[in-house]
Structures are given as C-alpha cells and as structure tokens.
Amino acid sequence: MSHSVPSFVYTTYIETSAEKLWHALTDGDFTERYWFGHRVASDWKVGSPYKFARQGTGSVEGKVLISDPPKRLAYTWDPCSPDAKRERTSRVTFDLEPRGKVIKLTVTHDNLDEGGKTLRDISGGWPMVIASLKSLLETGRALPADLPSCAAEKTDA
Amino acid sequence: MSKPEFVYVIYIQSTAEKIWQALTDPEMTKEFWGRHQNRSDWKPGSEWRHVNYDDATDIAVAGTVVESDPPRRLVLSWARPNETDVSRVTFEIDDFMASARLTVTHDELSEEMLSKIRAGWPAVLSSLKSLLETGASLPMTRRNWKKAS
Description:
The complex is a heterodimer of chains A (157) and B (149). Helix content of chain A is 33%, strand content 36%. Chain A has 157 residues and is of the alpha+beta class. Chain A has a seven-stranded antiparallel β-sheet with strand order 1-7-6-5-4-3-2. Residues 149-157 of chain A have low confidence and may be disordered. Chain B is 28% helix and 38% strand. Chain A binds chain B through residues 1, 10-15, 99-102, 127-128, 131-132, 134-135, 138-139, 141, 143-146, and chain B through 7, 9-13, 96-99, 119, 122-123, 126-127, 129-130, 133-134, 138-140.
C-alpha cells in the first residue's frame, strides 16, 4: 500500500447501531476486549485528553478534536513509542453512517509522515482492530489475535 | 505511468478453505455479492463470469482465470462485457493466528473503474466476513444493487 499521499482510509460495514458502535469506540472496558488489550480513557469532550493503555502502560494518546455522538469522532494520534515521537502528530477520524440496519464505519488516519513508523504500524493495525471490533459486535467474540506492532515494540524494548 | 490499484485487507474468523469456497461457489456469492453468482470451473485459462443470480444473461463482469491455487491464491482478469477496460483482481488467503487474512488487490485500473470498485469491495468483503462468522450476510448486499439504485 504505497501511496504518495500519506493518509490511510479503511471502510467497513457492521450490523449494529450507531450508538453501540460509538460506545465500542469510546468505552475502555469495551476497547480492551477487541483492541487487543488496549483500554481507552477520556471524557470525550472536545479539547480533552484521551489515552490508550495496555496493562497500565500507555500506547497512544492525544486530544479530542471532534466529538459528535454517535456520528463523528476525531482525535490526534500520538504513539508513546520513542521512534514515533519524532514524527508529526497525526489525526484519526471515525465517521459512522447508518445504512439501514448496518453502520458504515470509515476510519481516516491522516497527517502522517511519509515512510514513517506510524504509517507502517497503522496500515497493518487498523484492518485488524476494525475486523476484531466487527466480530465482537456481530458475534460476541473478538479476533483471537494480537497487534504485530505491539509485539515488535516489546522485543525492541 | 503506473495505473491505480486498490488494496483491501480483512481478517475473518474462518479457514482458508471456507473463504475460497465463499468466493467461488455461486450459491454463496449470491448471499454477499449483490445477488450475483461467480461462475467458472476455476481452472487457469478458463473463463469466469459474475452474473445476475436471477437472469444468467445479465453479465456484470467477465474475464479469465489467470492463476488458481486453492485455497491460497486466485487471480482473475476483470472487465465489463464488451469493454476493453480490463483490470486484474488478486485474492490472497493466509492463515493468521487462529483466523485468516484475505487480501484483495484490484490493480491495472482505469480511473473510471477505480471509482466504481472502491466503494464496492469494502461492502462485499465486510458482508463475506459477516456471512462466514455469523451465518448471515449483511442485508444490503443480498439485493441486486443495480436495481436498487
């Protein structure tokens, strides 16, 4: 997936309600189940900080840019790894659009450094996270997998 | 000038064999692919067709099986009937932890074809995942969407 414009867009369709999907994106107990152990915490007000942590160790943090439940959520994306710290702060936007009994979810990750670690990590990571989220909402079971980027960071450390 | 390509990766709690079957069995494709069936003997060099389930003379897409290595890799040429705008679709299926990863690469695209397929693949493949994991595809993909629009 080598594009000259460093933005990453991933769309999927999930049989759920916009409210449940919003909850799934913003509730730490829920993200821990499908986001491979990463809990999110925030009050989800515009300008507020948020943080993802796994077993108490921070993984990604930033601030809330847009919070329009249950339609649109955007935040800055600042990975806690030292390599990614040298890159510009990127941005993630979730758009939730009802299509009958199904929600179209579009994840747009932009303002990325070309050829950077963050672009590499998120290009592999989003399809896994979103697949796991879809499975959990539709079947009650998340994807039995782990994020390769987290495993790689652990061996690097 | 390199032509545009579209890549979509999806993880499915299923096996490579079941994903292969879902892509190549007309009774399964009709459930998640806009009530169309994929028809072929899936041998390299054979023709394949994507046709309306209720009217076999209504061919939406047709082409040749370029590579066929079940259940791992299927490469198809892809064109509207009687059009010279031919693109290529590659399905790759890998085992991934206790799941499977399906990578669809649609390349050799014209800008016009890219605009047609970029919205379709996420819907079709999301519905395929639902079908294999829950037993039911997504409702919107069970209809013939050409008629719906």
